[in-house]
Amino acid sequence: MPDSQPQQPHSSGSSGPDPAESGALLLCGARLTDGRTVDVRLGGGRIEAVGTAGSLTAHATRVDLGGHLLLPAAAEPHAHGDTALSAEVEGPVSYDVPDVQRRATESALLQLGHGATAVRSHVRIGDVQGLGPMEAVLQARRSLRGLVDLTVVAVPRLLTGIAGADGLAMLRDAMKMGASVVGGCPDLDPDPTGYAEAVLELAAEHGCPVDLHTDGADPARLGRLAAMAGGLRPGVAIGPCGGLGRLPVEVISRTADQLAAAGVTVVCLPQGGCGGAERRGAAPVRLLRAAGVRVAAGSGAMRDASNPVGRGDPLEAAYLLASQCGLRPDDAYGAVSGSARAAMGLPEVRVEAGFPAELLAVRGDRLAGALSLAYSRVVVHRGRVVARTSAVREYCDSAAAVALDLPRQGRAKGNEPGRPKGGGTAS
Ligand SMILES: [Zn+2]
C-alpha cells in the first residue's frame, strides 16, 4: 500500500497525457534511510506520492533507482563562483564578464552533479573589477535556471570611513542588479563592527538575508554581531569561523549561546577555506550544535588560489563532518542538506508527498556507506533528472569476492541507473 497520501495515478493508455509533456516522473525501487524500498512519483516540481515498490502506477517516465539511497538533495550555502576554477589559469586571472560567467556556470554545474540543486555564491564587488563579476554570475544564474538555483551574495570591500561611502554605493547597486543576499568580510575593515552595522542596515532596508565571512576569533566582536543580528528576520549566517574553534571551550560555549539566542547560522567549510577567510581551521561544530546553533556546511573555494584542489562536493563535506568532527552520518548529511537549505531560506525537503522534488540518489543502501563510497549519483531538481554520474568499478580477478559472496559493483545491462525506462526522457 502507498505510504503517504498518493494522488490517483494518471490514466494509462494511448489517450493519456504524454509523460514527457506532463513532466511526471516515477522513481522506482529506491531505498530510503529508514530501510524501506519505495517508488516515488513526482509531478509539478513536487513529490506527489511515496509508496512501497511496485505500488504506484502512473503514466510517467520511469527511472530505475534500484541499488540507490534516495535523499533530500544537498544545497551549497557557501561557494565562490567568481574565482572558481581559476587556480590553473596561466598569468593573471581574468575577471572579464564572459570569463567569469564561464567559470561560474561550470562550477555550479559541477556542484549540481555532486548533488547540490541550490548554490549560494559569494561574489566580490569593488576592487578594479567593479560590478563586472556580479553581472557575470547573475548571467550564469539566468542561463542555469531549471537546472540549479543560483543565488548571489554581494561581498563589498570597505564600508566605513572615507572609502566606505563608495563601497556602500556599490553595494546598493549590486542589490539593485539582482544580488539577493548582503555579504562581506567585516574582519578586513578597519571598523568591523561599523561594517557589520552597515551590512545589517542595508539588508533590513531590502528585506534580504546577510551572510558574512568571519574567522570568528574575536568573541567580543561575535557577541556584538549577535546582539545586532537578532532582529533581522530573513536571517544572518556567518562562516567559516575557524578561529572560533581555536578559543577556550568556555569562551566558545558562551559565544555559541549568544549566536543561538540571536538565531545566527554558522556555515562551516570542512573542505578548506576560501579567499574571504583569513585563516584555516575547523569551526567548533559540536559545541555550536550543543548550544543550539544551526550549523550548515559548505564547500568554500573550488580550485582557486585559496584552495587549488577544492571539490565543491557536499557529500565530502558531510564525510568530513562525520570522520573529523564525530557527527553521526545523518547529522553530517543534514548539515549539507536540511540545515543548508534552511540557512539559504529554502523550504524543507523530505521524501514524502507534498514536499519539493529536490532529490539526490546515491548508490548504496545506508547513509554511512553512501558517504563512504558516494560516486554514482542521480540528481533531481524541480521534479526532473538534471544530472547523472555513474561510476563502474571492476576488479581484475574477482574470484576472492565470488568465494566470499561479497557485493560487487557493475553496470547491469540495459538498466543504467537514472536512465528512463518505458519511453520518453527523464530530464
Ligand atoms: Zn568564502
From TrEMBL:
Residues 1-19 have a biased composition (Low complexity). The keyword Hydrolase applies. This is Hydrolase. InterPro entries: Amidohydro_3, Metal-dep_hydrolase_composite, Metal_Hydrolase, Metallo-hydrolase_Enzymes. GO terms for molecular function: hydrolase activity, acting on carbon-nitrogen (but not peptide) bonds, in cyclic amidines. Residues 128-386 form the Amidohydrolase domain. It comes from the Bacteria.
